[in-house]
Amino acid sequence: MKITFRLVLFVCLVLLISSCKHKEKGQKAAPAPPPQAQMPPPRTGPTAPNDTRVIIHEETLNKMLKALGQISGTEPYDLFLIKGTYTWTLVNPQIRLHPGKADFHTDVQVKVGKYSYNSTCVGDVSVTYDRQKNLINVKITRAIFEIYTYFLGKKYHIKDWDLAEDFPEPFQFEGPTATETSMSFTMPDSTVRVLYMHTTDCDLAVQEKQIVVPCEVEFTDKPTVKPALPAGQKK
């Protein structure tokens, strides 16, 4: 009787500990998704630059993506000692602009061995302005889709593919600070006065279907941009 009682007590304790472990696992919070890329808010009010602006339309970005032609990749895989390759191809990739953010949208055709399927991928895009280099940078920072296949009627995950790895460099557009415009005026005393206009302060805003870089301008009586030297001539 004592042996039987101890055996029953031991089994109950094992079941109780196992139940607590399963309960803890069930209550474990799922990892939070990565934050969506957000653009810095543009300045408003009397200090906001508003003399001139450069605008890049959403349509311009998508014309650029279309001009790149077919975008695809092929990689090997090994599943249950079965080796092969998978190929993905982007279908109608687009960058979409909304107030304060930019997104990347594309359909993806995936072929894993003899199995193929279509998937939709939505990712994040950062838009920044580098005033020192005078470049507007548009970069895909995250765009993940799943590579999977079916084996004996069951789905098997191979890997998650991030398209940001295939676009390591940003798409770059020239900003507004490189151009300096000169204007000639004939004064009442018949002398000619030349003024030079250049930008002094720029901002960046992502709006609906467009990127806007507004700037302040300044006028001087002397050029601020040094003229380019002839080819082969040293400074």
Could you write a compact summary of the structure shown?
The protein has 235 residues and is an alpha+beta fold. The chain has 2 helices and 13 strands.
Describe this structure in words.
With 235 residues, the protein is of the alpha+beta class. Among the domains are: 56-174; 181-220, no CATH class. The chain is 15% helix and 51% strand. It has two helices and 13 strands; from the N terminus they run αβαββββββββββββ. The chain has helices spanning 2-27, 58-67, and strands at residues 52-57, 72-79, 82-98, 101-112, 115-130, 135-142, 144-151, 154-162, 171-174, 181-186, 192-202, 205-207, 210-220. Strands 2-3-4-5-6-9 form a six-stranded antiparallel beta sheet. Strands 1, 10, 11, 12 and 13 form a five-stranded antiparallel beta sheet that branches. Strands 7-8 form a two-stranded antiparallel ribbon. The longest helix is centred in the first third of the chain and has 26 residues, at 2-27. The protein is rod-shaped and about 95 Å long. The termini are far apart. 17% of the residues are buried.
